[in-house]
Amino acid sequence: MTDVTKRYEEAKAKYAAIGVDTDAALKALQDVKISMHCWQGDDVKGFLTPEGELTGGIMATGNYPGAAHTPEQLRQDLEKAYSLIPGKHKLNLHAIYLDTDENVDLNEIEPKHFAKWVEWAKEQGLGLDFNPTFFSHPMMKDGMTLSHPDKAVREYWIEHGKRARKIAAYMGEETGQVCIDNFWVPDGMKDNPIDRYQPRKRLMESLDEIFSVEYSEDFTQDAVESKLFGLGAEAYTVGSHEFYMGYGLTRNKLVCLDAGHFHPTEVISNKLSSLALFSKGVMLHVSRPVRWDSDHVVIMDDELQDIAKELVRNDLMERTNIGLDFFDATINRIAAWVIGTRNTQKALLKAMLEPTKELQKMELNFDFTSRLAITEELKDFPYADIWNYFCEQNNVPVGLDWLTEVQAYEKEVLANR
Known about the structure:
There is one protein chain. By secondary structure, the protein is of the alpha/beta class. Helices cover 43% and strands 11% of the residues. It has 14 helices and 10 strands. α1 packs across α13 (383-393), α3 (71-82) runs parallel beside α10 and α9 packs across α10. The longest helix has 25 residues, at 151-175. The protein is globular and about 65 Å long. 48% of the residues are buried. The model has no long low-confidence stretch (mean pLDDT 96).
């Protein structure tokens, strides 16, 4: 028996004393697939116009060495990251990450331009999610795409959206895992607009045309994502939370909640139970805003834990697709993936290790004293021993051992890139 196993058995007994089955919790965690975002690996540059300007109200800061410059390099880095994360997961691809020798534009992309990604995902046992890219392109005019008053601009982006959905269906059919196709459209204005209505009407009509073709939900599902503001769109974002809440509910789409896309004092954890009452499902972009939508690496903060608790306590895991969205170029990019993904898994595990039914029963009986006492006592329970055992069972490094592997890999990469 290893020391990790010994400590697990001791922790297991302690949790059993309060009615928690740690084996069942680990089995549930094993089934959770985190959709890890490709754009952490190269600072959201992609392979369509990698030397172009990053637009759409987003920014990647830092110049840490070792960024991926080709699809092959990005896949190599992803493989390293996945090898340090327990479980089998998904990869979230943006359209600008196509892998082709053809000179192709966003309104011309086809499934064949992502065939290498699909074959790689199948070899790795990974699922794929997808995103049309409505930024970092000359056809984003005046800060707008699908809501632009110029019909020619809108038609370009409508065609892109249609092709993205076809690609997502192809990915889902090939991998045998549903591909979530998430639409985030950064259209907005820097200063106060006179007309907020017409741009939203144009966005609605553009999306309706994009979604006019039906695809089997066995292969792909559409999600729509809101945002409060971005750089250059501080005063008005066309695709607000209210817009996409209404659109998603009336068009039977998944609603994507990004932890960084709301007011700095607003959290998405408190929205999940309300949304669950009315929506078909949720797509999460787990991120960490610092004063604005700054997409910091996910840490084990209160909001991450609250998101996990809401999902587990309300039995929402099967209706929720968990993805990550951050890009930090000030630190090792692979380490960022590993830290963010493992923290998300840890938060879910902590939530799964609560005696949820007993706590709910106390609440129904208005026994708030016991509820408070137990939830506070749980903070000192040895969940880390359960997590370390989970890592050991999945043959990935325990504790900080993963960092040693990343540092060794970094030296190898820097010698060859």
